[in-house]
Design brief:
With 240 residues, the protein is mainly β. The protein is 12% helix and 41% strand. It has 2 helices and 14 strands. The protein has helices spanning 6-25, 174-182; strands at residues 28-29, 32-33, 37-43, 54-62, 67-74, 81-85, 90-92, 101-105, 108-114, 116-125, 134-146, 150-162, 192-198, 201-207. Strands 2-3-4-10-7 form a 5-stranded antiparallel β-sheet. Strand 8 (101-105) and strand 9 (108-114) form a beta hairpin. The longest helix has 20 residues, at 6-25. The radius of gyration is 23 Å and the shape is globular.
């Protein structure tokens, strides 16, 4: 049996104490840096509460000038994917996609994200989780990142969260995740919307309720791929 020297033993005790402190205070995760993207899993709260949903996000921070893709990538590209590896008692919902940007590439138009994006996923912890345990949420994330060229990248990510009776918002990620959720695409409450096929085009008519402020520039993003030409012209006519 080999015993560690006193300095090593002391260092090990400090490491264990620090790890225990981190577990007590909240989540543990490490960003992964690929050639053009920094990726990590972040949570809206500092812990899991049995029976209480929690939002976990895949954060992608792209190198300047590079972009990743929406669920409908447009004329080219591939959407980001998440393959979860979860312990018993945790269920993951689908990615809730933020509204994309229009990304012209020559004659083509793609849909995606530049800078930083949070892909939200709702986790459903069951009531069977044991308070005091630590749960590791792991996932394989894959994305296509493009500039003049496109590079497939991916990372194995993990986020450790303690199980507690109550959990405050994460001091770093609670507010950004809440802002991302508030900005998700949603139905236009009170608007009248109709669509009419006219040969190889579709006329989309939107009538707002009285007193609605001018929405500004309008761009239509088809939810499903391969149905509407992304690079096709979109002519907007305003009446009133």
């Amino acid at each position: 049996m080999i015993r560690p020297s006193p300095p090593l033993a002391a260092a090990f005790r400090v490491f264990v104490a620090m790890a225990a402190l981190l577990l007590a205070e909240g989540s543990i995760a490490a960003p992964v840096k690929t050639e053009h993207v920094e990726a990590e899993l972040v949570a809206a709260k500092t812990a899991l509460v049995p029976g209480e949903p929690i939002t976990v996000a895949l954060r992608l921070a792209m190198e300047k000038g590079w972009h990743t893709y929406w669920q409908n990538p447009g004329d080219s590209g591939l959407p980001t994917t998440l393959a979860w590896k979860l312990p018993a008692g945790i269920e993951a919902g689908p990615i809730e996609w933020p509204a994309p940007r229009e990304l012209p590439v020559g004659p083509l138009v793609n849909y995606g994200y530049e800078g930083e994006v949070l892909h939200l996923v709702e986790m459903k912890p069951q009531r069977t989780l044991v308070v005091g345990d630590t749960v590791v949420l792991a996932a394989r994330a894959e994305w296509l990142v493009c500039k003049e060229v496109c590079i497939p990248e991916g990372a194995d990510l993990a986020l450790a969260l303690p199980v507690q009776n109550a959990a405050p918002l994460d001091p770093r990620w609670g507010a950004p995740i809440a802002a991302s959720r508030a900005a998700l695409p949603r139905p236009l409450a009170g608007w009248q919307v109709t669509a009419e096929g006219r040969g190889d085009t579709i006329a989309l008519k939107l009538v707002p309720p009285a007193g609605t402020a001018d929405p500004g520039a309008i761009r239509f993003f088809p939810f499903a791929p391969d149905r509407i030409e992304p690079s096709g012209p979109q002519r907007v006519i305003r009446d009133g």
